[in-house]
Specification:
By secondary structure, the chain is of the alpha/beta class. It contains ten helices and 15 strands.
Length: about 350
C-alpha cells in the first residue's frame, strides 16, 4: 500500500470514530427566541409573538395598518450568553424587497452587545431569502455578556432561533428595573425605519440605546395617519414619553382635528406623560430646497395650531420640534429626498435627543 493510501485510511478511521475532534463541528443548541426576552411590544403576551399591535386591533384599525403591524420594526431579543459564537436562523413572512432600501434593513437581523453600559454593534444577519441561517459572530472570549438582536424593519417573522455551542449559557437578559417605562414612537415609514441599512439604525432604536430605555416602534409605512382608533390604542400604553411623528402621511386628512383628538385622549388617559410633536421636514432634495419644487407646509401649520390650542392645558409637558431642525443642510442624508439614510437617522436622533432628555427630566 502506498504511503498516501495509508495516510488516507488512517484519517478515515479517525474521522469515522470521532477521535479527530479538531475537524468535528460543534453541536449547536438552538433556543426559541420567544423563550428569551422579546422587547419593543406595546402589548406583550398576544398570540402572535412578533406583531406590534394587539390581536383585538384587527378589524378596528385600517387593514393596511394591521398588515404593517406584522413587520417587526423596533422589536428586539435581549439575552445573556457566555458563548464564543452566536448563530441565528430565521424565517421571514414573505420574500420582499424594495428598490431604495437594503435587504439587511428589510429582512435582516442586527446584533449588539452591552459594553461599559453602552450598546455596541457586533454583526448583521444578511438574509438570503425566506429561510435563513447564519453564524453572526465567532472567536469571542468565553465570558458572560448581554446581547440584543434587533429584528427586521419591513418583514415579519414566523420563526426565530438563536444558537450557541452545546454547554454554553444562553438565557433571558435581566428585566428592566421596576417602574421603567418605554419611549413610544408613532408615525410613518420614517419612524418604521425606511430606509435604514440595518434594523438598529432606525431612529427609535438609536434613541432607545442612547437613553438606555426600551422603545416601542409604531411606525406604519405610508399609513401613519393618526386615526382615532390608533389614538385610542396609543393611550393604552404606559409610556415614559410619546413621540408623535405622522405628518408626512397626513397631507390628505384633517391634521388639526386628528392631532387635537390624539392630544385630548392622551391628556385624559395618560395624565402627566409628556408628549413630543414632530413636524415634517418635507422633501430635502436640492430641487425643493432651491424653490423649484415648493413644499407643502400646510401639515406643519395645522399641527402648530393644534399645539398652540393644547399647550396651556399641558403644564409644560407638551413639546413641538420644528421640521427645519431635523436634518442637515447638505442634502446628503436621504435616499430620495424623504427617506433617511443611516446618516439621516443619526441626524434625526441628534435633533430629537435634547427634547427627549428634557421631557424625561434628564
Amino acid at each position: 500500500m502506498t504511503a498516501w493510501r495509508v495516510l488516507f485510511t488512517m484519517l478515515t478511521i479517525l474521522v469515522t470514530t470521532g477521535t479527530y475532534a479538531a475537524e468535528s463541528p460543534s453541536e449547536i443548541r438552538w433556543v426559541n427566541a420567544t423563550s428569551l426576552r422579546v422587547e419593543g411590544q406595546g402589548w406583550p403576551g398576544e398570540t402572535r409573538p412578533f406583531r406590534r399591535l394587539p390581536d383585538r386591533a384587527e378589524g378596528k384599525v385600517p387593514d393596511k395598518v394591521w398588515e404593517l403591524s406584522g413587520n417587526c420594526a423596533g422589536l428586539a431579543v435581549r439575552f445573556v450568553s457566555d458563548s464564543s459564537e452566536i448563530h441565528v436562523r430565521w424565517t421571514v413572512s414573505a420574500p420582499f424587497t424594495m428598490n431604495h432600501m437594503a435587504d439587511t434593513g428589510i429582512s435582516g437581523l442586527d446584533l449588539y452587545v452591552r459594553r461599559d453600559g453602552e450598546w455596541r454593534w457586533m454583526a448583521v444577519g444578511r438574509p438570503d431569502g425566506v429561510e435563513n441561517e447564519k453564524l453572526l459572530v465567532s472567536g469571542l472570549p468565553r465570558e458572560q455578556r448581554e446581547l440584543m438582536l434587533s429584528l427586521p424593519l419591513y418583514n415579519g417573522l414566523t420563526r426565530l432561533e438563536i444558537g450557541v455551542p452545546a454547554g454554553c449559557l444562553i438565557e433571558p437578559a435581566p428585566a428592566w428595573p421596576e417602574g421603567t417605562k418605554p419611549i413610544v414612537f408613532y408615525g410613518t415609514s420614517i419612524v418604521q425605519g425606511g430606509c435604514a441599512s440595518r434594523p438598529g439604525m432606525a431612529y427609535p432604536a438609536i434613541l432607545g440605546r442612547r437613553l438606555g430605555l426600551p422603545s416601542v416602534n409604531l411606525g406604519f409605512s405610508g399609513n401613519g395617519k393618526t386615526e382615532p382608533e390608533m389614538a385610542d390604542l396609543l393611550a393604552e400604553l404606559d409610556a415614559a414619553v410619546f413621540v408623535i411623528d405622522p405628518l408626512p402621511n397626513m397631507g390628505a386628512v384633517p391634521v388639526e382635528e386628528r392631532i387635537t383628538y390624539l392630544l385630548d385622549v392622551l391628556r385624559r388617559k395618560r395624565p402627566g406623560t409628556p408628549v413630543i410633536l414632530v413636524e415634517s421636514y418635507g422633501n430635502r432634495g436640492e430641487p425643493a430646497r432651491s424653490g423649484r419644487r415648493p413644499e407643502d407646509t400646510s401639515v406643519n401649520e395645522e399641527m402648530r395650531r393644534a399645539y398652540q390650542k393644547a399647550k396651556p392645558l399641558w403644564g409644560g409637558l407638551l413639546t413641538l420640534v420644528e421640521g427645519r431642525t431635523l436634518l442637515g443642510e447638505d442634502c446628503e442624508d436621504t435616499v430620495d429626498g424623504v427617506h433617511p439614510t443611516d446618516l439621516g437617522f443619526h441626524r434625526l436622533a441628534d435633533a430629537l435627543e435634547p427634547a427627549l432628555r428634557k421631557a424625561l427630566g434628564r
